[in-house]
Design goal:
By secondary structure, the chain is of the alpha/beta class. It is built from 10 helices and 18 strands. Strand 7 and strand 8 form a beta hairpin. The chain starts with a strand and ends with a strand.
Length: 362
């Protein structure tokens, strides 16, 4: 087996991503080598290069992916050669305080880790991998708890989306907001995560799902996902949402952008006693301002949803079954199928708010 592969690397902060030849590490005990077959282009990858996050370099981009196990190390018990797997970029250790208290999505060994070294090298120098994965490459080496087996009948491009966009958006609705039948839901930001939240809200029985985006071309995608209303984002968003919700505001707002301005808009468009769930990951210096009086008088709940507040080992296989059973349709989420060399152009489309998910196929 070749110990070299091609990967998409950012060498230093501020430089463009480029395809380079990387030397793969030897596989160690408890590790798994996966041949990447599909990888989604996620906004978190863009955050690694646009200044929102400051990861170490050189850096292999990509984290939302699926592939086939081609090698396993000693003592591996949860994967075997030939398995089709989804990669988990925030695997739970199952032994820290958070894992033992039912919050594996906040696992102290992986939560908040932007990038790691894993033995990969470029010109004999260490290379970091995004969120411990580095999926914009032909292969990855990860610990066995970072792979989750899915049925081989599930297409790789759809399986890849389960590892981030679908799990995050669906989990925000099911696990964090806990949307109930008959409620109204506002979703702001219609990328892959936001469209997944729209679909999950309708599946949860929401009577009204109002989808919001700055790009009016997202209307068709929103309707395909199950939105009952589409609203182009504007300064009058709160007034518009209230006019559609008996003047009260939405029961739930799911913010999938990660900006103070859109969190504030979600807050204002939610009814008294409603809940705002923040899914988008924002910048450290983008400050949100709420007065002490409005926090008290509005009686609203403001929460974050990290990785869908999900136990990935349980929920990714369940989502895979839903896709195969026809309960969860994902095809509309993939608007572009591309190669590794096309990822920078996909970032440009994402920055302009175009399309839903671009998926690299290998």
């Amino acid at each position: 087996m070749s110990r070299y592969m091609t990967g998409l690397v950012v060498r230093t902060e501020g430089t463009p991503a480029e395809l380079v030849e990387l030397r793969l590490p030897e596989i160690g005990p408890g590790q798994v080598r996966v041949r990447i077959r599909a990888a989604g282009v996620c906004h978190s990858d863009l955050s690694m290069i646009n200044g929102t996050l400051r990861p170490p370099h050189p850096l292999v981009l990509g984290h939302e992916a699926a592939g086939e196990v081609v090698e396993v190390g000693d003592h591996v018990t949860r994967a075997k050669i030939g398995d089709h797997v989804v990669l988990n970029w925030q695997p739970a250790c199952r032994s820290c305080w958070f894992c033992e208290h039912g919050q594996p999505w906040l696992c102290s060994t992986s939560h908040g880790v932007a990038a790691l070294e894993n033995g990969l090298t470029l010109d004999d120098a260490p290379v970091h991998v995004t969120l411990g994965v580095g999926a914009f490459a032909e292969q990855v080496v990860v610990p066995e708890n970072a792979v989750i087996a899915v049925p081989p009948e599930l297409e790789f491009d759809l399986a890849a989306l389960l590892g981030c966009a679908i799990l995050t958006g669906t989990g925000a609705v099911r696990n964090t907001a806990r949307v109930a039948p008959g409620e109204s839901v506002l979703v702001i930001g219609l990328g892959g995560v936001g469209l997944s939240a729209v679909a999950a809200a309708r599946a949860a029985g929401a009577a009204q799902v109002i989808a919001v985006d700055v790009n009016e071309s997202k209307k068709g995608l929103a309707e395909a996902a199950g939105a009952t209303d589409f609203v182009a984002s504007s300064e009058n968003l709160s007034k518009d949402i209230r006019s559609r919700t008996s003047r009260r505001g939405a029961d739930h707002a799911i913010e999938c952008v990660g900006r103070a301005a859109t969190i504030r808009a979600a807050w204002r468009a939610t009814r008294t006693g409603g809940q705002v769930t923040v899914v988008g990951m924002g910048a450290a210096d983008d400050m949100l301002q709420l007065s002490a009086l409005e926090i008290f008088s509005s009686a609203r709940i403001l929460r974050a949803s990290v990785y869908g507040q999900a136990d990935t080992d349980l929920e990714i296989p369940a989502l895979a079954r839903d896709v195969l059973d026809g309960k969860l349709a994902l095809g509309h989420l993939i608007t572009d199928r591309i190669g590794l060399a096309d990822v920078p152009a996909a970032f440009d489309r994402m920055a302009r708010g175009e399309g839903a998910r671009s998926v690299v196929t290998l």
